[in-house]
Batch of 2 targets.
Target 1
Amino acid sequence: MEEYTSRDISRSRSKYKIFNKKISGPFTIPSGIVTTGISILEKIANEIPEIGILTTKSIGPEPRKGNREPIIAQYSPFSFINAVGLCNPGVEEFRKRISKIKISPDKFLLTSIFGSDEKEFKEVAEKLVEFTDGFELNISCPHSEKYGQVVGQDNAILEKITKSIVSLGKPVFVKISPNLDVKETVKAAISGGTSGITAVNTKGPELYLWDGYPVLSNKLGGISGKAILELGLTSVKKIREITDLPIIACGGISTRVEVERYKEAGANFFGIGSALAGMNTEEIKQYFHDLLIDLKKGTDNASSLLKEKLNMDYQKYTVRENKSLADDLFLLRLDGEIKIEPGQFIFAWLPEKGEKPFSVLDDVPLTLLIQKRGYFTNELSKLKENDFIYIRGPYGNSPKLNEAILLVGGGTGIAALYLFAKKYKKTAVLLGAKDKNHLPYLEKFKVLCEELYLTTENGEMGHKGRATDILPEIIKKTNPEGCLNCGPEAMVKMAIDIESQYLNPEKIYSSIEFLTKCGIGLCGSCATSNGYRSCVDGTFLKNNQIFHKSQLRF
C-alpha cells in the first residue's frame, strides 16, 4: 500500500498517522455498526490492530430507545436498509461508560455526536471532550425527523455547529450525506474549520416492502453497503476536488478492490460496516487481518469471509394452535417445520406490529414458547387459528457436543433446551419454574431424556425451590461431562458458579436473554460484558465470553 501524502497524514513502515498521532491501521468501523456497545468497542480496540480509528455510535444529549424492531432488512446482496433511530444511552451515561475502559494508545477514538442544534451539539461535546481524540458530527442520518440530515441540510447551521465544536480544541470530522449537495456541505464544513470529512452516510430515506408491507417499523430507512458504492466513490471524488483534508471513506467497501478504488478517489482511511454482517468476533479479526495483507500483496483472501445471504428473507406461516398455559405464557404452534440447530433462534414478525427474537421450542412443527412481556408479545398472544405470521432465520450457532450433558433451564429458558434433548440422546434435564403451569412439554422431555428433574418455587411439582438449589445434587447423580444453561442472568450466573466446582469450565455453555435487534451482528445490542455479540458468537457461550472473571466465583 502506498504511503499517504494528504495533509497531516503520513505512514511509517509499521504505523499510520492522523493529526500527529500514530495509529495501528487504516480502517474503522462506521458509527452505529458493531462497536455500539462499550464492551465491544474495547475488545475490538485491543484485539484488532488493523482498526486504527475507533468510531463510536452517535451520542446525543438524552437517552433514546430508538425505533421498534424491525430496524434492519437485507436490501440486496451485501446491502441493507436500516432505521435504528439514533438509539443511544445519552451523553451522561456514555461518559460514565467510556471513562472506565482502557484503549490502546495507538488508536484514534472518534466520538460520533448528534443534536438538533448548535447548543445540543456543544453540550454533548463538552461532556466528552476529555475522553476522546476527536469528534465526528452526525449531520447526515437520513431517517430522523429532528436530527441528522434535517440539521445538515442547512449549511449556515452546519457551519455554526462545526465552529462551535472545533473551538473545544479537538479534531473534528463532519459526516456528510450523499442525499444533499456534497460540495456545498463540505464547503460549509470547511468554513467552520473542520479537520476532516467522513463520506458517506446512508442513502435515503427509502421504503422497503415485503409481501406489500413496509418491513421497518419506521417505514423509511437508509441504504448501506454495496448498493451505495458508486455513490460513495463519486462523493469522495467531489470532496477531493475541493480540499486536501483527510477523508474517511464509507459505503460499499468489502474487499481490496473497493479500498483501492476509494484510495484512488482520494480517501485516506476506510470504514467497513455492512460487509461485517454475519461475522462472529473471530471472523472479524481474521477479515481485517486478511484485508490488510490483500492490500499489500494484491491478493483477495478477505472475500472468503464475506456472507452474501444471511437468512433475512421472511417465510410466511399460518397459526395452527395458540395454547394458553398461564396468564403470561402461551404456546404458538405453526403449520410448517423449520430447519434449525439447537441453540439457534429466529425472529417472528407481524407487519405493522413489530418483531422480536425467540428460541425455537420445537422444529416439527415450528413451535414457540412465548412469555407476555410487552406490546408485541401481547399481539402474538391474540393470534387465532389460520392467522399468519412471518419468520426469519435461523441465527446463531450450535455448540458442538459429543458427550453426556446436563441441560439446566429456568423460566422461558426451557424453550431453548428441547432441541438439545431431541438431538443428543444421553441427556439429563433439570428444569425450574415458578409453578407447574410454567413447565411445558414435560411429556416430550420424559420420552427423550434419561433423567428429568423438576423444581417449582411454590412446590406444586418436583422440588420446592429453584433449579440451582438442587443443582449440586443433580451433578453428582448424573456425572455429566458438560452443562448447558439457559434462563435469567442471575440463575445462569449461579449455575455457572456451581458447575465450575465440578466440571471443566470449557465444557459449560450458557445462554441468557441479551437484547437482540438484528440477529446478524451489526447493531451490537446483544453485547456481553466481555465484548462478544450473542447473536453471532452464541447464543450459547462459554463463561469467559459472557462474564468478566470478577463476576464469577470460579
Target 2
Amino acid sequence: MKDIKNEIDIDNNATEKTTQRWEWISIGLMAYDALAIAASFFLALWFRFDCKYSAIPKIYLTPYLHFILIGIAFTVLVFWRLHLYNSIWKFVSYVELLRMTLATIVSFLFHCVVITLFFKKMPMSYYLFGIILQFVSTLGIRFSYRFVLLLRGRKDETVKYTKMSNVMLIGAGKAGQMILRDIKDAKEINDRVCCIIDDDPNTWGRAIDGIPVVGGRDDILKNVEEYEIDKIFLTIPSATALDKREILNICSETGCELKNLPGAFQFVNGEINVNALKDVAVEDLLGREQIKVNLDEILNQISGKVCLVSGGGGSIGSELCRQIATHNPKQLIILDIYENNAYDIQQELKRKYPELDLVVLVGSVRDSRRVRAIFEEYHPDIVYHAAAHKHVPLMEDSPCEAIKNNSIGTYKIAYEAMMNGTKKFVLISTDKAVNPTNIMGASKRLCEMIIQSFDRMIKENTPDKLPLLFAHSEDEDGSISNHRSLPKEIKTEFVAVRFGNVLGSNGSVIPLFKKQIEEGGPVTVTHPDIIRYFMTIPEAVSLVLQAGAYAKGGEIFVLDMGEPVKIDTLARNLIKLSGLKPDVDIRIEYTGLRPGEKLFEEKLMAEEGMKKTANNLIHIGKPIEFEIEEFLGQLEELMYESYNNCVRVPEIVESIVPTYHPVGVNGDKYKRDEYKKLFKVVG
C-alpha cells in the first residue's frame, strides 16, 4: 500500500509540475501581448511624427497613455476567451490563425470606438499601423515556435538523407496532399516524396508543397527510374477498381514497394494518413468494383433469429459468423468438427461482440445422433451449411469420404432442419458442381439435388417420402429413426448458393503461392492457360446473406464472379508484389492438370439459364428436372456403398448425376482451347 501511495504522489507531483509550467507559459504570453499591444500603437504614433518622440503632440500622447491600459486589458480578455492562451503552439494551425484574426478585429473595433468617443480622435495612421503591428507581433510569437521546429526538422531530414526511401505519390488530389504533408510532418517516417503522378494534364509541370507533378500513369516507369523510387503510394480513394487495377499493374512492373489507400470511406472519416496506407494485395489487381448489398434486407432476415453455421470454423463459415454477428442475431451457433478452427472463431467473436449469445459446438454433420441432438436443443431459425470437404485432388483419392461428408452430411442436417422448424436452409455450393469432372464437384451437385428434393417434397406435401439416412449399420437402440412423426406444418425453405474460388480461403492457391515464394520457389502452376473465377471471402459471404434474403425455396443462386483470371497471371503478380521478378528471381513451373481438374470452371449448366434478382450480382438458375423418388432411392444406395468403402462409388455417382463426366490426368476429356471462345480472361 505504501508503494502505491508513493506512486500516486509521484504522479500528482508530475501533473502539478506540468500544470504549473503551462500556467507560467500562459502568464508569460499574456505579458508579452500586453507589451506588444502597447508598443504597436506607440510605434504607430512615433512613425506618424517622423520617428521623433519629442515631435508627438501631447493632445495625442496623453489620450494614448490614458487609454492603452484599458485597451490592453480588453484585448487580453478577448484573447483569453478565444482560447489563445491554452493552445499547444507546437501544433499551431489555421484554427489558431482564424481565432487570432477574429480577436484582432474585435479589439480593433473596441480601440477605435472607445478612444475616439471618450478620449480623442487619433490620426488615421495610428489606427491602421497600430492594429497591423499588433496583429503581426502577437501572431508572430505564436507561429515562430512551429517555424523553428520546421527548420529543425528539415535540418534533421538533411542529416538523414542517405537513409531515407524515395516515394512516388499517385494522385494529386486532396488525399494525396494530406499524405504528402503527413510524411513531411512525421519524424518517425523515413520516407521522402520525390514526385507525384496524376492523370489530370492540368497538374503536369506544377508542384504541391514543392514536389513536382511529373505526368500521368504512362510516365510511372520512366520517373521511377529517374527519381530512383523505392516506394509507390496510390492515394486515389475514389478511383474505380478498373483504374486501380491498371495503375497497380504498371506499378507491379517496377519492383517498388506498393501501398494503397483502400477506399473513400477513410477520406470521409478523416483517416487520411500514412498509417491508413495498406500493402497492395493480389485482389487489388483483379479490378472488381466494390460489391453492394442491401443491409436492411439482411438485417431483417437475421435480426432476432437463431442462426446455425455448419463448418463455422472454416474460411467461408467463419466469415459467415463474423457478418451474422454484426446483424443482431438472437443466438449464433457454430458447428465444426475441427476444434482448433472453432476455438479461434469463438475467441475472436467473444472479443469483438461480448454481448453476442454465442454457442460453439464440436461435431460432425456425418454424426446423425449429434446433429439431431443439436437441432432438438437449439431449434435454429436459419441454417448456413458450409461444412464440406473441398480439396479436389484429395477427394479424388478418397471418393467415399466426399460422399459421406458432403452429400450424406448435407442430407442429414437438411432433414433435421425440416423436422425442427428451421425457416431457411442455405447450402454453400460451388461452381465445380457445374458439369463436374471430379468427385468433389459431383458430391456438391448431389447436395444441390438433395436441396431441390426437399423443397419439392415439402411443396407437394409429401415429405414422408424422404428416407431417413442415418448410418450403414443397424439402428439398434432406435435413437435415430425412432419413428418420429413429421411436424404438422413444414415451412423450411431450402436454397443453394453457388460461387467460385475465394481469395485466401483454405485450399486457395494464394496461400500456396505465398509459401512457395517465401521458400524461394519454384511457384507451381498446373497449366499456363488454366483460369478460375475469384472473389474475396467477405464479398462472397455478403452475397450469400443477400441471396438468403431473396430465397423462396428451391432456387440455386449463382453469384456473378466477374471476369475469370488466369492462374499463371495471378502467380506472376504475387511474385511482383513480393518485389521479385518472375522467371528471374522466382521460377514458375507448370506441373500439368491434376486428376479431376478442368481448365475452366462454369457458373451454370447449359440447361439452367438464369433469372435476375434485385442485385445484379446474384442470379437464379432454373433447376434441372430429375425424377426425385428415383434419385432418393439411388442416394440411399450410394450412402450404403460409400460407408462400405466401395471402389465403385465414382461409377455410382456418374449414374446418378448425368452431368458428371470424370476426367483423368491433364483433363483428357476436355479440349483445352475451347475456353478461349467462351471467356474473356483477365491477364
